[in-house]
Amino acid sequence: MKNFQVSLILFFLVALFSCKKEAINSSQQSATNSNELATVASDSKWQGAFLSYNGNPMSRVIKDKFFIKNGYARIYDSSIKISPFNLYHTQFRLVIPLSIRIKGDSLNFEIGLKNPINGSPFAATVGREIDVYIKGETNDAFIANTSTSDVSPGSQEYALMRVGRTLINNVAELQYNYEDYNTFILQTFNHGLVAYRNDTYVKGLAYYNEPLIGRLKEIGIIFQGSGFIDYIKLYNSANSKLLMSEDFNTDGQSTITWY
């Protein structure tokens, strides 16, 4: 496996949001909250990036109109012309609007995804890694899923979980070939980071000696190659309340719903 540090492309999305009401009755407040969530949703967009390995083509930002199609999000040759010799990554990220208050330490980040061996132009031996991460105001969490060792020799070394500087690697449980759609969950709860696959516990990491993640600022997925995302949901892991959903069912358009 060729291991290299992927530089996350930094760019910002400004969410326009204001609350002008000061004293209104409960029914008016409910209507106002609904309107505010609608405004935030209209301003929330998925941001994509092509992360090049050898410069053919160069790394670049990809707008949602080029990667949301046919019921999924994916950056491939329909989005950008890619050399078969480029061991690239693709990234999808969402910056959480300032008006949305989500606890990064009580979160279920659920994704329906796949990254099949034949879904990218370069050899499967390079790997089909899937990285899932969250960023908060005071810390971040990261889980790297890798291909099995029979497909990508040496890949177990890069299967890891991390919160801040607390890390475990060589996590064999995180080796899996996502040939078909599976559900992956990054969960934070009670100073613990946990990975679930298809609602089955995979591995956990305690982060008692780390700062809390704090208010959620960003979520993201990085594929080695051109993976698929079917849907994304955010839940409060303490009470199972649905916080956000996206089904990618509208071609060329983010359809994020906040609850």
UniProtKB/TrEMBL annotation:
Superkingdom to which the source organism belongs: Bacteria
Signal peptide boundaries: 1-23
The entry's keywords: Signal
Protein name per its UniProtKB record: Uncharacterized protein
